[in-house]
Automatic annotation (TrEMBL):
Gene Ontology molecular functions: oxidoreductase activity
The keyword Oxidoreductase is annotated on this UniProt entry: yes
Superkingdom of origin organism: Bacteria
Organism field: Ramlibacter humi
Protein name per Swiss-Prot or TrEMBL: Aldo/keto reductase
Length: 353
């Protein structure tokens, strides 16, 4: 697995990134450490986390994931220099006052959150520090349409970039990135960064999978022309594309009770819990089996193969899942299957947008 560059930065990472958002909720610390041990043994050098993790978000577990990673790094002091560690500053509070107070995200919020993440992780510098969701009003996390009447921006993009500039100057951050971002937002961040000599986004971390290909509706061109890298998250559509809900549905008899969608009502209430998303997932599962593949392998191999996907973020709750996800890297999907996948998308669009 050759290393790839992220945007115009000098960060070199594996094309698979280990996502950690379930560490501290579904995955206990000892198991999380075992998963990270195995990922590194298999060659992975890229970890992604966030200040608000574990998920589903609640006050009691806010910051738990970074703390678990920090404990692991202290147990393995020689690893830090071999790893690229990414984390995220939360945007304005979305019903989570324990993460961010108020309707905005000030420069002071960004700096304070960074310092708290550094403390929990037990490191001196964050390699890639990302804005988890935009400070301004945007359609995200299942919302489809932009509504200008909901605009409540408190902090300009320029001010946010100045905060990142301070963090880079102070040696606390190497590069900045965005998440759950739109083409407009990406262009504004790049334009203002270049105009004022401030940190330029290296990456955008957005949902991208067979159930949500909205990145291909314009953001893909922006990423290419601006030389910013996509970090796809949820390549298995929160487990829908693993095939494990094909027979049972999300909560019916036989549904995996420990899985995120089955276990947490807050997840089912969102984009991944839509009936249309499950219907589409079943169509993709049938395609995978037609070609002799597991649904998870097909979904991951599809994402890994896409030119737009620079480093795909996988999330696992067990070593077995980790092995399957990493093994899918070596699977190349035939052109006939890719054409059938595109046909399903034409018919069912993006049900988990």
């Amino acid at each position: 697995m050759n290393l790839v560059s992220l945007g115009q930065s000098d960060l070199r990472v594996t094309p698979i990134c280990l996502g950690t958002m379930v560490f501290g909720e579904q995955v206990a610390q000892a198991d999380a450490h075992a998963i990270m041990d195995r990922a590194v043994a298999r060659g992975i050098n890229f970890l992604d986390t966030a200040e608000m993790y574990a998920v589903p978000a609640r006050k009691e577990t806010c910051g738990a994931t970074e703390t678990i990673i920090g404990h692991w790094l202290r147990k393995n002091p020689g690893l830090r220099q071999k790893l690229v560690i990414a984390t995220k500053v939360a945007g304005p509070s979305r019903g989570m006052p324990w993460v961010r107070e108020g309707a905005g995200m000030t420069a002071a919020d960004i700096v304070t959150s960074c310092e708290n993440s550094l403390r929990r992780l037990g490191i001196e510098t964050i390699d890639l520090y990302q804005i988890h969701w935009p400070e301004r009003n945007t359609p995200m996390f299942g919302a489809m349409y932009y509504d200008p009447t909901k605009e409540r921006t408190k902090t300009s993009i320029h001010e946010q970039l100045e905060a990142f500039g301070k963090l880079v100057k102070d040696g606390k951050v190497r590069y900045m990135g965005l998440s759950n971002e739109t083409p407009y937002g990406l262009h504004e961040f790049v334009r203002l960064a270049e105009q004022h000599g401030l940190p330029r986004p290296a990456t955008v971390q957005n949902a991208y999978c067979l159930l949500n290909r909205s990145v291909e509706n314009g953001l893909d061109e922006s990423l290419h022309r601006l030389d910013v890298s996509l970090l796809p998250y949820s390549p298995l559509g929160f487990g829908l594309l693993s095939g494990k809900y094909d027979e049972s549905g999300l909560t019916g008899p036989g549904a995996p009770a420990a899985a995120r969608i089955a276990k947490f009502e807050s997840v089912r209430a969102g984009r991944w819990g839509r009936e249309d998303a499950l219907k589409a997932a079943r169509r993709y599962s049938a395609l995978a089996r037609k070609y002799g593949l597991s649904p998870a392998t097909m979904a991951l191999a599809w994402c890994y193969q896409k030119w737009i996907a620079r480093s795909t973020i996988i999330g696992v709750t067990s070593l077995a899942q980790l092995e399957e996800d990493l093994d899918a890297w070596n699977v190349k999907l035939p052109a006939e299957l890719l054409a059938e996948i595109d046909q399903v998308r034409w018919e069912m669009r993006d049900p988990a947008i």
